[in-house]
């Protein structure tokens, strides 16, 4: 049996695209389907896109069909801001990966979205290959930010939020960066040439200092507070 046939037999990933511009959302779906050597398809399986053009329509669809594997969300919708849906999902479907697709990708926009619970933020002007890679990374449980999103810009946006930044040691920042790449403890220990128990101790300290309850939340806080930038993901 060929590799392509095997890939076709994998479970189909269900994607809900929430955008009031169907030309963009449907065009993106067609482009990803037609793309040769797509990372998201190769790594995770075929995609099936469904569409909603408002917060109300998206909320109703998610309540009626809670089994989506990925949500693509435009922040500016006719009946409200995407942050409202993000807050709802954090309370009711926290395991659903959410990617923001927006024409506005200022550092403050990215920081606010990641802080609110988004797993990724992609500019609508990004090349298709970058979007494809970003979706694959998010489905691999990584936090994804635009290529022009820098640590210094993140810090500036954080200062605008008037939030105190905890003091992390250089080693803790190293561990946080490797965590953002989705690496397991054993791999982190190998890279840092230390014991796995040492990595666990650093993670415990990071969770405490960043007020995080799990690895994804820890990485999200790292981006929010300026310890991580695009090059760390």
Notes on the structure:
- The strands form two sheets. This protein has a five-stranded parallel β-sheet, with helices on both faces. It has a two-stranded antiparallel sheet with strand order 4-5.
- It has twelve helices and seven strands.
- Strand 4 (76-77) and strand 5 form a beta hairpin.
- With 233 residues, the chain is α/β, with parallel strands linked by helices.
- The protein is globular and about 50 Å long.
- It has two domains: 3-149, 3-Layer(aba) Sandwich (Rossmann fold); 153-232, Winged helix-like DNA-binding domain superfamily/Winged helix DNA-binding domain (Arc Repressor Mutant, subunit A, Orthogonal Bundle), CATH 1.10.10.
- Helix 10 packs across helix 11 (196-209).
- Helix content is 52%, strand content 12%.
List keywords for this structure.
single chain; 233 residues; alpha/beta; Rossmann fold; Arc Repressor Mutant, subunit A; 2 domains; five-stranded parallel beta sheet; two-stranded antiparallel ribbon; 12 helices; 7 strands; 52% helix; 12% strand
